[in-house]
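Re: that chain you flagged

S.,

Sorry for the slow reply, it's been a week of failed gels. I finally had a moment to sit down with the sequence you sent. For the record, here it is as I used it:
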Amino acid sequence: MFAGRYTSRAVSYYLIGDEALPLLPYLMRPFPKRVLNNEKRMLNFRFSRGRKSVECAFGMLTFKFRVFDGPIACNEYCAEAIVKTACVLHNFARFLEESFQEPSNFAETNGAVPAMPGGSRLENTPTQSQAIRMRNRLGNYFLRQEGSIDIQWKYVGLP
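Prediction finished late last night. Pasting the structure tokens below so you have them in one place:
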């Protein structure tokens, strides 16, 4: 459970990719596995958890809606509408099945997003140094109490 404070400050948006993708301000990738200290290992662990959650959610959508088995043959606007509609229908079906659960900390925060230090929308000019700063900021945030989760400390072997 999230133990920190929630505020209404903006949090930067980013995508999480794997090692094959470039590091960009809006696309975070894990640190190379060659030289990892505890902080870098923890950030890689958190990125991995995020990617697994998304892959699992997409797997559930694909199982229920076969339109996601291959390329969606329509324009971008229509594809976006299909994805959003599938998400709504999936959540509605889970709600009716009584298996839908809100995140444990959702009710206490009224849906607010936790603030990340320096969280602001990124400029449209993707630079390597900007991406490195963003990844370092995320790593520092995950090490702080308000950005950490219990399992991450067990993963890297810290108390």
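What I noticed first: The chain has one domain: 15-156.

Talk soon,
D.
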